[in-house]
Amino acid sequence: MKLKPSQITRKLESLFLNNHVKRVYRKPPGQMPGTAIHTGAKRVENVTMTIHDFDLSHYDVIPIEKVEKSEPYILNKSKTWIQVCGLHDVDKLRTIWDYFELHPLIQEDIVSTSQRPKVEFYEDAVFIVMRLITHKTEPNGTINLHTEQVSIVLGKNYVLSFQETDEPIFEPILKRLQQQTTRLRKLGPDYLAYALMDTIVDHYFHSLDLVSISIEEVEEKIIDKPEERHLQKIHALRRDMIFLRKSVWSLRDGINSMIRDDSPLISNEVKIFLRDVYDHVVQVIDSIETSREMIIGLYDMYMSALSIKMNEVMKVLTIIATIFIPLTFIAGIYGMNFDPEASPFNMPELNWYFGYPISLIFMLSIALGLLLFFKRKGWF
Amino acid sequence: MKLKPSQITRKLESLFLNNHVKRVYRKPPGQMPGTAIHTGAKRVENVTMTIHDFDLSHYDVIPIEKVEKSEPYILNKSKTWIQVCGLHDVDKLRTIWDYFELHPLIQEDIVSTSQRPKVEFYEDAVFIVMRLITHKTEPNGTINLHTEQVSIVLGKNYVLSFQETDEPIFEPILKRLQQQTTRLRKLGPDYLAYALMDTIVDHYFHSLDLVSISIEEVEEKIIDKPEERHLQKIHALRRDMIFLRKSVWSLRDGINSMIRDDSPLISNEVKIFLRDVYDHVVQVIDSIETSREMIIGLYDMYMSALSIKMNEVMKVLTIIATIFIPLTFIAGIYGMNFDPEASPFNMPELNWYFGYPISLIFMLSIALGLLLFFKRKGWF
Amino acid sequence: MKLKPSQITRKLESLFLNNHVKRVYRKPPGQMPGTAIHTGAKRVENVTMTIHDFDLSHYDVIPIEKVEKSEPYILNKSKTWIQVCGLHDVDKLRTIWDYFELHPLIQEDIVSTSQRPKVEFYEDAVFIVMRLITHKTEPNGTINLHTEQVSIVLGKNYVLSFQETDEPIFEPILKRLQQQTTRLRKLGPDYLAYALMDTIVDHYFHSLDLVSISIEEVEEKIIDKPEERHLQKIHALRRDMIFLRKSVWSLRDGINSMIRDDSPLISNEVKIFLRDVYDHVVQVIDSIETSREMIIGLYDMYMSALSIKMNEVMKVLTIIATIFIPLTFIAGIYGMNFDPEASPFNMPELNWYFGYPISLIFMLSIALGLLLFFKRKGWF
Amino acid sequence: MKLKPSQITRKLESLFLNNHVKRVYRKPPGQMPGTAIHTGAKRVENVTMTIHDFDLSHYDVIPIEKVEKSEPYILNKSKTWIQVCGLHDVDKLRTIWDYFELHPLIQEDIVSTSQRPKVEFYEDAVFIVMRLITHKTEPNGTINLHTEQVSIVLGKNYVLSFQETDEPIFEPILKRLQQQTTRLRKLGPDYLAYALMDTIVDHYFHSLDLVSISIEEVEEKIIDKPEERHLQKIHALRRDMIFLRKSVWSLRDGINSMIRDDSPLISNEVKIFLRDVYDHVVQVIDSIETSREMIIGLYDMYMSALSIKMNEVMKVLTIIATIFIPLTFIAGIYGMNFDPEASPFNMPELNWYFGYPISLIFMLSIALGLLLFFKRKGWF
Amino acid sequence: MKLKPSQITRKLESLFLNNHVKRVYRKPPGQMPGTAIHTGAKRVENVTMTIHDFDLSHYDVIPIEKVEKSEPYILNKSKTWIQVCGLHDVDKLRTIWDYFELHPLIQEDIVSTSQRPKVEFYEDAVFIVMRLITHKTEPNGTINLHTEQVSIVLGKNYVLSFQETDEPIFEPILKRLQQQTTRLRKLGPDYLAYALMDTIVDHYFHSLDLVSISIEEVEEKIIDKPEERHLQKIHALRRDMIFLRKSVWSLRDGINSMIRDDSPLISNEVKIFLRDVYDHVVQVIDSIETSREMIIGLYDMYMSALSIKMNEVMKVLTIIATIFIPLTFIAGIYGMNFDPEASPFNMPELNWYFGYPISLIFMLSIALGLLLFFKRKGWF
Q: Which residues of C touch E293 (CB under 8 A)?
């Protein structure tokens, strides 16, 4: 018996809803490549499309339903950015894809929301896939990292961006677009694509900051008193770092290829800025590696703290037991019922005048001797 | 005394039948290279051969016994795919090899079923070896990964595929072949080879999904209560990942060489699709690495959970023992038989009016004191 | 609910003040690149600027307030070094930036004080970012590493240096500048830039020396008696090494690019000296790796020392308990109240003539037998 | 005082005889390079030399004593293979070296039997050093790996092979040489060299098979019951893998250089076969890495199995001790000798009608309560 | 408060004298590069300089005090080797440096005795820094590795060698120089430089041999009985390997650059020999890595041996305690003083005819039952 794909999917879906985001989730094997099937969960109610049309002289924002109606904006000489939020309505997305004649593999990748970051050069477009990482503080104070796929298509005169949710991450860019003097208005669509990428990369730093805070907090608590939930926290942090690294790692090569490629779509002026993003990505990767080592260090520290506590417990047991076991034995001796009257050798101590005090003093001196022995060993 | 090859083989065979698939299994040393000897277990009853002959206008499927009889299908201008299931009947296979004049080393590799994945360029053919990974759910609920070697020979006008079993993994491709408008019918045999490779790679994702589910399940159970069988499960997962990685790792370079090679057998159009497969393989390798780290994390977690449980056991023992050992000692004291009549110093407490209650209260206060001490230490 | 950036910042700020220097700290996401915002803590009261104007014939040091007033020094043929201490007053810094027309990204990097070390080539300047590492001995004897960012801009006829504090690290260079015959006076501004870099790299060796001493000290103490605070010291050392490595690692490639680049700003004569700095950086990285392995070794040693101590504790417990438990049992036997008068089988030993001595000798021989057993096992 | 070289040598020799083959064993420092000194143990009685002279029309095998006497075989047009078994008689070997004018460094390497595998190109010869790995089953069932150095010199018309023992590993090649139609007879001496290399590489697979079997066996036993000798077995396996890897690793680059080099001594036809050997070596290295990970996994498993057993032991102790310690205390209470006649408060229970049964029931209920507590904790 | 450099130096000096040789020890930061300051300890009484003047026809050895006086030897056509032992007298060294006009950076590196190995090409000289490793057996039988820096300057017609001590490591070369027919006399100064390097590399093998012996010895002892001093030995071995690796690692690239460089100072004939040294260095690095893995394996083995011993200790305690605790409880029961006369329910067993024997048999059967239980569990 084999597990049916649908069963696997259902299981994975439930893991996904419980925030286990590390899933690999794809179309069934053997299916036609270039088939656009949305493989993620529906994360917004409606797919919204917004046209941002701008050049040095104007900046218009128009929500659209059908891409054909907005053809004037696309055809005119000014730069056009179509921002799409929500990926579950493939038919709606297809209207855009068909209009811009995107390659089937681009289409497939936009809606297969478990892509690794990459930059691909097609004849008339650059296709960029990135993972946006945001964080949410749960009511109980824990901070969870969330991820969504953001795809950017950079064409001759336009930029298309596709994101899974309507998270307002590009808000600052909209504000900058409203100012006439910014480079965004002056330079070409490649600078806009750069700005979008830069914004996403900037978010990584904030997620890393949060992880750093968590590491510090756990570290302080472990030194104080190691508990099982700290172990789970460390494990969760480890997962987060694996997950973060996976989201960023391959981006480095992607951006590097943008800097080194001769594509006419990317100007030299923007390449200097891309070099800056590249530098940031390298810095993020560095920080991730650093955090991973810190987390491994945390784990080692946790285990040693456990060992230390164990040692302490064992010492208490050993000290108490080692002191009282011989004493109890002596008390047991004088609790024996040998008949003193049957023979002068039978426990004559019981009838000695100072029998009891002597035995007590004897016990006391044994106890003190053992205490001294443990003291010498440095056990307390 | 040396272990005879046959003994080794028998031992390995038994390991193999018990699903220990990591075996390296080959022809005896010193034998002529290019000797085709089937080195795997017989996994289907009969070797079956099927010709798929197709172009834009037609698609025929003909089971064949002898390759000579089907020469018309091969010689005509349409594309031909000969699908072979089962590798134990080397004589039957040789009829095909001889007809297509395959290099002896290709012949040897097709039936030596422990090859690592590779892509080799010969003068008039591209030889591709891949490992298909499927899974089976056992009656007891465990999921086992199975592997078989699939070899693909891509020639000028034909594709030969050799698989160990008759697992219907290429079913979806057959369905797509029946539709006249698909790229499979339009493009050359290189696209068919690509489609076969893509299907095999897609299966990796499903195996990885199952591993992810297992990891999640084990993780939850370990947090709850670590048991020895979880350790064995972790160990098995670790083996699976080592095995998966070995099956995929070298494929990356192989596909890369297909993309970069100038062989006339592979068109530029198909290379874009191969780039997609390449990307998937990299993604699979990424996921395998991620899973391996997760499994190592699981192991660490298991060991810490064990330590925590141990600590807990020790604490219970220490608390109980530490409280009662001194009390028992005191009870032992008053169980001594010193004769109170022999001297006024001999256990006068035994005759005190409140001797017994006082001793009980004394014991109780010691117990409470120790409990307080443990409480302060944070032991419960 | 999301954690507001300001809250994160505040948390990070408090970590920072408590000497947790591994922070990643940056401008909010989406902001215009090239925006110069000081992201570190204010570490000196006032931003001071000093002009060092020198050639073979003279050397003048002039503290300045406004860069325009010192234009003569800059425009003349002699070499000019403007040393800036303190980065929090961006407006003041901007006067220099504007005067020398630095690229906005250089401006941003100078005041974003968590850059990784790098060397970037612009059209008319080389931009070098390094991390200076100094150490302070706290009143309690612990040694803390401190870091600050030092940026160097090497132009055609000038060098600009920006540091966070007024730490007098370049003091020895000032002294050498006063001597007329030094290479500093003879060679161009590239040699000055080299000298600054060399000084910073030399400081790494001193930090590493201190770490080496700490490692030796901890090692000796652990062998003597492992304590929890040693574990924390090891953990702190580990963090220091991660942090040091991060500060130096990427510098290697940076300096290498200076040696290999054809920039007219760096002469061949200076490149031989840069090769020397490169060599030192490699040596520092080597030493860091060595120290890291030593620290891991320390950790392993600590854990084994713990285990050994634990074993010792357990042996003491086991020896004492194992010897006295059987003896106490025997004493317990003869403490039973079976009535010897009810039957001749009821504890006749109690009335034997040598009953008590025999029982004592019996106990003694058991104790000696067990001691012999433990001796044979090599337990003490 | 220094350890004299002779003392070191003697120590190493004894280690060597006890099968510790990882020794580095060489000429004393400062000696003239190119000095041929046999550094291994004498492993056959006499050095034997055999000439195999063959071409398409004939195949002769002649044992020789002096190389000069066989000059006709060497000078004729047919291919000549001189097989030398035993390396301790350097004078005898020198007759061959001198005849073929081998470079002094080749001479030195042939008899220094701890070379790492390598391929070196000289003007008129290719010098190949490999390590043959064979296994022997000891009477007690353990399998030991043995190694010897095999050197191959490939010249224009001849092949020289030097091995330490007379292990008949090239037997299958001799058989193939007797058949007139094999490639060995058709192709040049380069194909013979290839065939020798292929045979040696094939032996690696058999050693790896044995290691795999050992790993499986140990794994099964550890799951069943971990014992100290398993640990030693794991340690021995680890050493074997380190040793195997060292024997194979550098061979990869060597063979690769043979494939890529333009030496006229190696034909393109043979290069295709060398590509196959290269592939096998890579596969061996892969398997070694896999086995190493499996062995590390075994070790982890062993340690966890130990911990689990420890936990079990502790639980038994804790359950028994925790149940009986309080009961013994209660029994101790009623064994106290407070005089009931001295006061009504002094142990009135002793005279109660149901005193004894009540106390027994009280003890029983405590025992049951504790059992229930442990049951709840999941301890059994 | 900062630690003064002098304090650090003093601390490091004391560590150094106690044979902690891993120190990084350098000139104070900011000092003029190319300043020759001796940074090591004084290790010979006087700096001695010896001229070896030789060609095919003669070989003269002359101890010199001032380099000028020996100018004839240097200026003549024969090859000259100036061997300097001792580095603390910089003024004396400077006479040589000045005579040969060595670059200031070479001068600095010769006396800064913590250089990593390197090969640097200057216009008219090749500068080689190596670390010589020797060993000394202490009176207590432990073997310590010692290191010193050996610098070689290879010029057109001369070789300069600088070593820290007068250790007679080049003795064998002197002997070979006395023989007229050796290559040393025939070939140029590059061959002499090669011979010096070869001698130093040969010493590595002897140090590695000693480490191998130590590893074997510790391994045997650990299997027998793990003790704390073994742990310290393992730790010391680990340090030695880290230290050895550091001394050799970068030499590989250095020698490689000598083989590949086109410097006229190194002839092709000598390059073949350098290839041999290169090979040895790679072999040393391989062996170091192998030894490191062996040492890690030792550590793991030590830890497991500790765990096994711990388990054994716990088992003895558990068996003894678990058997006697219930028995003692039963003895305690019959030691209670319930008055049999107060009620027929009060301990009637005490008056049974077979009361005592029955109780003893009961105890015995409990003990046997528990023993059987432990036997079944495989505890002994």
A: none
What percentage of chain D exceeds 90 in pLDDT? 31
The whole-angstrom distance between residue E2's C-alpha and the CA centroid of its chain comes to 33
CA atoms of B282 and A21, how far apart (whole Å): 19
- pLDDT tens-digit readout, C181-238: 888 898 989 999 999 999 999 899 888 888 888 888 888 888 878 888 888 889 888 8
First to last CA, chain C: 62
Residue E313 is nearest to which of C303, C305, C314, comparing CB atoms? C314
Do B274 and B371 fall within a single domain? Answer: no
What are the backbone angles phi and psi of residue D67, rounded to the nearest 5°? -70, -30
Interface contacts (A, C; CB < 8 Å): 200
> What residue ranges of chain D have pLDDT lower than 70?
1-28, 30, 34, 141
Q: Among partner residues A300, A307, A379, which is closest to C306 by beta-carbon distance?
A: A307
Same domain, B268 and B353: no
- A124 with A207, same domain: the answer is yes
8-state DSSP, E32? P
- For the complex shown, is ipTM > 0.95? no
Distances in Å between the Cα of B89 and the Cα atoms of A355, B23, B65, B152, D159 are 97, 22, 12, 18, 38
Whether B355 sits inside 8 A of D346 (CB atoms) is yes
Q: Give yes or no for residue B16 having a pLDDT over 60.
A: no
pLDDT of residue E11: 54
pLDDT at A281: 93
Residues of chain B neighbouring A337 (CB-CB closer than 8 A): 337
Length of chain B (residues): 380
Same domain membership, residue B339 and residue B295: no
Q: Which residues of E touch D367 (CB under 8 A)?
A: none
pLDDT at res. C151: 95
Are B231 and D321 inside 8 Å of each other by CB?
A: no
Q: What does the mean pLDDT of chain E come to?
A: 85
Reported as a pLDDT band with limits 50, 70 and 90, residue C24 is very low
Closest-CA distance, E64 to chain D, in angstroms, reads 25
Number of separate domains in chain E: 2
Task: Work out the minimum CA distance from E226 to partner chain C, whole angstroms.
Answer: 10
Closest Cα of chain C to E178: distance in Å?
39
Give the domain range for residue E175: 7-305
Q: Which of B305, B339, B356 is the last residue of a domain?
A: B305
Residue E261 resides in a domain: yes
All chains having 3 or more CB pairs closer than 8 angstroms to chain E: C, D
* Per-residue DSSP letter, E379: -
Q: Is the dihedral of CA D272, D278, D282, D284 positive or negative?
A: positive
Please tell me which of the candidates A235, A324, A357 has its beta carbon nearest to residue B345.
Answer: A357
Residue E315: which of D313, D334, D349 has the nearest Cβ? D313
Name the average pLDDT for chain D: 85
Q: Is B301 exposed, middle or buried (0-12, 13-18, 19+ CB in 10 A)?
A: buried
Give contacts of D343 with chain B, Cβ < 8 Å: 352-356
Q: Are residues E269 and E321 in the same domain?
A: no
Instruction: Determine the distance from the C-alpha atom of residue E38 to the mean position of all C-alpha atoms in its chain, rounded to a whole number.
Output: 24
Q: Which residue of chain C comes nearest to A145, CA vs CA?
A: C2
In a domain, E1, yes or no: no
- Is E25 in the same domain as E157? yes
Report percent pLDDT > 90 for chain B. 32
- Tokens 């000095």 — which residue? D35
User: Which among C143, C287, C304 has CB closest to E302?
Assistant: C304
pLDDT digits (tens, 9 = 90+) for E351-377: 888 889 999 999 999 999 999 999 998
Quick one: tokens of C38? 């000081």
Instruction: Kindly report the nearest CA distance between residue E207 and chain D, in angstroms.
Output: 10
Answer yes or no: are the C-beta atoms of B163 and B150 closer than 8 Å. Answer: yes
Q: What is the pTM of this model?
A: 0.81
Cα distance from B64 to chain A (closest Cα, Å)? 25
Q: Which residues on E lie below 8 Å from C172 (Cβ)? A: 28-31
